[in-house]
């Protein structure tokens, strides 16, 4: 069993790096940690970065999760290979670039590129947010898969993820710690990143951010609304490079592991995804097919 400790980052291709970075800082409110000619790293919390842009084609390159140490990484490699999953070990240069000690990469059954990392660098200095959006942390990431039940089987048989709730066969919300979900899988035609989530400090932050985005003509995809699963108040909006961001406030924590029973919500019910019965659709950023070649 591979024990995921936490989510680490999203790596995204950016055809227009300056615009992608400008939006992430000035609109989303992230801190720009480092910028080179063709790359940028942004953070929302103590993690060195939760979002990296690499100049090139638009699309998600990979998502990263932390494991505890080199033994856990070696175990993960063996477990994945025994399950018939091809694994590529990261190079020293790739690890430096990711600001981790070591890593490996693999594809889930649908072609989502996932990286397991050890020792993601922490930056203890105070955050210098791009704007006061109220961000407290990188909350979760959501992958696309054409078969959500098969994705669940993959994530729950090889990894320590536990399902918190289902939205029919359309979405599965998985936890790796008491937070209701850190990984979600959403039904989509092809692999990709459905969205990345940032927790904000208050309901007021969600609503102020909504006004801020509307005034600037940012495309709101869904919300403000309230998810019945995590009970969080949410807002999804579209950024450059096809990347969907979500702000949310008030995510449920599951503190009694033994007592929790996953619930099943019918996606055709009007309040299955939004208790306030809003309508919206979340569009994804397609997975760039790299053949597990480092970028
Ligand atoms: C619609 C998506 C997959 C979704 C559903 C529920 C929650 C939540 O309960 O917080 C999310 O964050 C989602 O992104
Ligand atoms: Fe979400």
TrEMBL record:
Q: Domain named VOC: which ranges?
A: 6-119, 137-250
Instruction: Please give one Pfam family short name.
Output: Glyoxalase
Coiled-coil portions: none
Q: Which InterPro entries match?
A: Glyas_Bleomycin-R_OHBP_Dase (IPR029068), Glyas_Fos-R_dOase_dom (IPR004360), VOC_core (IPR037523)
State the protein's name. VOC domain-containing protein
Lineage summary: Bacteria, Bacillati, Actinomycetota, Actinomycetes, Kitasatosporales
């Amino acid at each position: 069993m591979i024990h995921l400790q936490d989510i680490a980052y999203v790596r995204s291709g950016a055809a227009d790096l300056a615009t992608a970075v400008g939006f992430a800082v000035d609109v989303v409110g992230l801190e720009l940690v480092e910028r080179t000619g063709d790359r940028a790293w942004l953070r929302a919390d103590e993690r060195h970065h939760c979002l990296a842009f690499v100049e090139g084609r638009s699309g998600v390159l990979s998502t990263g999760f932390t494991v505890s140490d080199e033994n856990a990484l070696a175990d993960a490699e063996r477990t994945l290979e025994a399950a018939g999953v091809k694994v590529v070990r990261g190079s020293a240069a790739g690890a430096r670039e990711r600001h981790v000690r070591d890593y490996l990469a693999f594809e889930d059954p649908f072609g989502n590129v996932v990286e397991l990392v050890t020792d993601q660098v922490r930056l203890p200095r105070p955050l210098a947010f791009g704007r006061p959006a109220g961000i407290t942390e990188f909350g979760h990431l959501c992958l696309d898969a054409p078969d959500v039940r098969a994705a669940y089987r993959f994530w729950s048989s090889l990894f320590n993820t536990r399902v918190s709730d289902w939205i029919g066969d359309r979405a599965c919300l998985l936890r790796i710690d008491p937070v209701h979900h850190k990984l979600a899988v959403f039904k989509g035609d092809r692999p990709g990143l459905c969205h990345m989530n940032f927790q904000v400090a208050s309901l007021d932050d969600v609503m102020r951010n909504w006004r801020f985005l509307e005034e600037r003509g940012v495309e709101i995809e869904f919300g403000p609304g309230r998810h019945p699963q995590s009970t969080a108040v949410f807002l999804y909006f579209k950024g450059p490079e096809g990347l969907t961001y979500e702000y949310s406030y008030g995510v449920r924590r599951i503190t009694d592991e033994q007592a929790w029973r996953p619930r099943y919500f019918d996606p055709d019910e009007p309040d299955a995804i939004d208790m306030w019965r809003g309508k919206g659709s979340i569009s994804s950023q397609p997975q760039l097919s790299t053949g597990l070649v480092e970028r």
